[in-house]
Write a structure and sequence with these properties.
This protein is an alpha+beta fold. The chain folds into four domains: 159 residues, Molybdenum Cofactor Biosythetic Enzyme, Chain A (3-Layer(aba) Sandwich); 51 residues, Alpha-Beta Complex (Molybdopterin biosynthesis moea protein, domain 2); 83 residues, Molybdopterin biosynthesis moeA protein, domain 3 (Beta Complex); 69 residues, Beta Barrel (Beta-clip), CATH 2.40.340. The chain contains eight helices and 25 strands. Strand 8 and strand 9 form a beta hairpin. Keywords: Magnesium, Metal-binding, Molybdenum, Molybdenum cofactor biosynthesis, Transferase.
Length: 404
């Protein structure tokens, strides 16, 4: 059998299912990072509150704390002392008020707080200058936000500044997170050699490393600037060492210099699938090598980017244990598009604010080699023969940015 041939393309849903099956049930190494550095990382376990918030009844504002009944009975009260945040106050003397700052604990004996600007001060006494609020007013009760044992962060949550604030408020110094997968990105081809007559700069490796790094990976790049099979094999073997995932770009089609598949088969890799019925990106091939997953992407930058977005990024999310699916973006299509039978076509679109909400427009592209189209696009829209796009239809494109 000619191992280079695309004898039997798999459809997009099947290919994605096979990729995600590779991620299921595998080990998910865990590490700990300082809470302040946790943004973008994936929580490796549920994180529970160790204390209530607030930890005690506290004042919601700067003002005066007093017993409501005493203020009703006397109309004004002498002020005895001041309580600030961080104090453990003594009990309030009967028939007195106390100055109190926002976040300070309510002294025993007080059951109401009134804002300073709503009080009239005469010497050492205070009286309401506006109607007296109800008993219990302006007091944040112990545990009203959450109690000890409340789940603050769910396993699989991608952490951001909101979770950093929450965990830091609990006094946590570090947090268990999924270890960032180690991804080796390998580009190849004689045209990438600096001394080649028609030398081309390598845009694929830095593009993919950046894309996958933004998706949670720890990516490194490797270059085999040759069409020589032995030279490419040496680079690929070096890139594989220590990597959880290997992503190659170029050399996976059926030309005389496309050696990636043969090299990987010689290394003992098994083919998961060879070719996908998508456009662009048809040559995408996925292999298994020991515990590693190898993604062989086309060499055209646009096709490589689409394969990384639609296959490698979901795989990364899965192996890091991300539980929440990407939030769909609903937009009204400003164009019509069809796809050939049996093919999923990915169309770059830009998102705009319209009078009735978000709308999307097709971004002009010259084909699989186009990279400027992605700098003008915000999302990808999948189109099939069964699900064409019609002007004015509500569609759900996949955002290009973020982990999620």
């Amino acid at each position: 059998m000619n191992i280079k041939a695309f004898a039997r393309l798999v459809d997009y849903p099947t290919a994605l299912r096979l990729v995600l099956a590779r991620a299921a049930g595998g080990p998910r190494p865990v590490t700990r990072v300082p809470v302040a550095q946790a943004t973008g990382r994936v929580a490796a376990a549920d994180i529970l509150a160790t204390t209530c918030r607030p930890p005690a009844d506290i004042s919601a504002m700067d003002g005066y704390a007093f017993a409501h009944a005493a203020m009703v009975a006397h109309a004004s009260l002498p002020v005895a002392g001041r309580t600030v945040a961080g104090d453990r106050p003594e009990a309030l003397a009967p028939g007195h008020a106390r100055a109190i700052l926002t976040g300070a604990r309510i002294p025993a004996g007080a059951d109401c707080v009134m804002a300073a600007e709503r009080m009239a001060v005469a010497g050492d006494t205070v009286a309401p200058a506006t109607p007296l609020p109800a008993r219990g007013a302006n007091i944040r009760r112990r545990g009203e936000e959450f109690t000890a044992g409340t789940r603050l962060v769910a396993r699989g949550q991608v952490l951001d500044w909101r979770h950093v604030a929450l965990l830091a408020a609990q006094g946590l110094r570090d947090v268990p997170v999924a270890r960032r997968p180690r991804v080796s990105v390998v580009s190849n081809g004689a045209e990438l050699a600096a001394d080649a007559a028609g030398a081309c700069p390598d845009s694929n490796a830095p593009m993919l490393a950046s894309l996958l790094g933004a998706s949670g990976a720890r990516a490194s790049t490797h270059l085999a600037p040759t069409d020589n099979m032995a030279g490419q094999a040496a680079c690929l073997r070096a890139a594989t060492r220590g990597a959880d995932i290997v992503v190659t770009t170029g050399g996976i089609s059926v030309g005389n210099t496309d050696h990636m598949l043969a090299i990987l088969r010689d290394m003992g890799a098994d083919v998961v699938f060879r070719g996908v019925a998508i456009r662009p990106g048809r040559p995408l091939t996925v292999l298994a090598l020991g515990g590693r997953t190898i993604f062989c992407l086309p060499g055209n930058p646009g096709a490589a980017a689409i394969c990384a977005l639609m296959f490698v990024r979901p795989y990364l999310r899965a192996i890091m244990g991300v539980e929440t699916p990407p939030f769909p973006t609903a937009a009204t299509a400003g164009f019509t598009a069809d796809a050939p039978a049996g093919v999923t076509q990915f169309i770059p679109v830009s998102l705009h604010r319209g009078p009735d909400g978000a709308c999307c427009r097709r971004v002009p592209t010259v084909g699989a080699s186009d990279i400027i189209a992605f700098s003008r696009a915000d999302a990808l829209l999948a189109v099939t023969q069964e699900n064409p796009v019609r002007m004015g239809q509500v569609v759900f494109p996949e955002r290009l940015f973020g982990t999620n």
